[in-house]
Design a protein that fits this description.
Blueprint (H helix, E strand, L loop, with lengths): L1 E6 L10 H4 L12 H21 L12 E5 L3 H14 L11 H6 L8 H6 L16 E2 L18 H16 L4 H11 L12 H12 L10 H4 L2 H13 L3 H27 L5 H5 L2 E6 L1 H10 L15 E9 L2 E8 L2 E3 L11 E2 H11 L4 H6 L12 H9 L12
Parallel strand pairs: 1-4, 2-3, 2-4
Antiparallel strand pairs: 1-5, 5-6, 6-7, 6-8
Helix pairs in contact: 2-3, 6-10, 11-13, 11-14
């Protein structure tokens, strides 16, 4: 079984920096750009080479029973998932009609155009043998992929606020050349020159440069050299500097992963008869930098990263079977991880020990703990039941020689 967590690709800026940087974007704020589409398409091509061509784990043509794709409710994540799937299952790999009877039956209950009449003589189900992909979209505020929202976890505001204050004071001297350039070159006000509030301007700059755009009022070399340090501290010491904020943000996702992997092993051992879990092989979460960084922080892998999760950053979790023994292999952007120090020299992590470690890093009382110490009335969490249904309906696995 393969579980994949990816950040969307390069997008337009939705922060407040575009006006100061004198930048105009080709689409509305926050939407995926062509560069981002290409990033995910190429990731899909790479995955096809490994999991279809090399390992024969996934079928040559798309089988919806083998894939479960979950996205947040934003254009950029939905389009990122679609682009990646198109790389994994490109044009020419879609379904064909097995016989003329099915082809002749495949007509709508209304008159079709002359052009369409010509196509119905083809055995291609869709033109160019395109594969349609089902993508399941979560509500805007959800614990599974957007757990850092104050709306669903109010206590995070306290944890994160304190972390940002501490991180600003511990980094402001080192980051001074960056803040100085932002003030002098871009005209950013002093109140935004800190580890918490500088991000909209630096995000705009980051996305512009990654999109191949020219920033006329560019930063100095010294300031550019501090960008990775700013982003690492913003995410891993600011947003998720308090381990509890990372835990509350990522627990629903990690619990989902653990429950699904455990159930998949049960199916493989013959102690579970779930048809869904017999069939499922690939789960794709199309999400955000906060999703990935909270996960990395919770599993104590933040020091393997040099900056924030990059556009199209991809974490792969493989369930592997050797003989009668199960292992987990973690990879983020081609870098193998040793999660929980239960891995051999080949970075194969013992399954049950890894599951115990992950359980020790999360909470199963997310809704309750998000309310602790909250001032005022408690949130009713109207979306929790929706997410519980989504998560409760999924538990994942599928075997290819080594990979389950």
């Amino acid at each position: 079984m393969l579980i994949e967590i990816t950040r969307h690709g390069v997008r337009s800026s939705y922060g407040s920096g575009s006006e100061l940087l004198n930048l105009t974007w080709p689409n509305r704020g926050g939407d995926l750009l062509e560069v981002g589409e290409r990033q995910h398409y190429l990731q899909g091509v790479k995955l096809r080479k490994r999991y279809v061509d090399k390992l024969n784990f996934l079928e040559d043509t798309f089988n919806p029973q083998h894939h479960f794709v979950i996205s947040t409710n934003l254009n950029r994540t939905i389009m990122s998932a679609y682009s990646q799937l198109l790389g994994l299952y490109p044009l020419g790999k879609g379904p064909l009609f097995e016989d003329s009877g099915k082809r002749k039956a495949a007509v709508p209950p209304f008159k079709i155009s002359t052009e369409a009449s010509k196509f119905i003589r083809s055995n291609d189900v869709l033109e160019h043998r395109y594969s349609p992909f089902p993508i399941h979209v979560l509500p805007n505020e959800n614990h599974l992929l957007s757990g850092n929202s104050y709306l669903i976890c109010p206590i995070l505001e306290d944890y994160i606020g304190e972390s940002f204050r501490h991180t600003h004071y511990s980094t402001k001297a080192e980051l001074y050349p960056l803040y100085h350039d932002m003030e002098q070159i871009w005209g950013v006000s002093e109140e935004h020159l800190n580890i918490e509030k500088a991000w909209p301007y630096l995000d705009t700059y980051d996305m512009a440069t990654k999109n191949g755009m020219t920033v006329e009022n560019d930063l100095s070399g010294n300031a550019k050299n501090l960008l990775n340090k700013f982003w690492w501290n913003h995410f891993y010491e600011g947003l998720f500097g308090d381990p509890k904020s990372a835990q509350l943000t990522s627990s629903e996702l990690i619990n989902f992963i653990v429950d699904n992997l455990v159930e998949k092993v049960k199916v493989d051992k013959g102690v579970s008869n779930s048809e869904f879990h017999k069939n499922i092989r690939h789960v794709l979460f199309s999400a955000h930098d906060t999703t990935v960084s909270a996960l990395m922080k919770t599993i104590e892998q933040e020091n393997t990263q040099y900056t924030s999760p990059q556009p199209a950053s991809t974490t792969l979790i493989e369930l592997i079977k050797r003989g009668n023994t199960y292992y987990i292999r973690w990879v983020i952007d081609d870098k193998e991880l040793q999660v929980g120090n239960r891995c051999d020299i080949n970075k194969f992590c013992e399954f049950y020990g890894t599951m115990d470690y992950l359980n020790s890093r999360t909470t199963r009382n997310i809704e309750e703990e998000c309310q602790k110490h909250e001032k005022g009335e408690s949130s009713s969490f109207p979306l929790w039941g929706i997410i519980a249904i989504v998560v409760g309906g999924l538990i994942l696995i599928g075997c290819f020689s080594c990979l389950c």
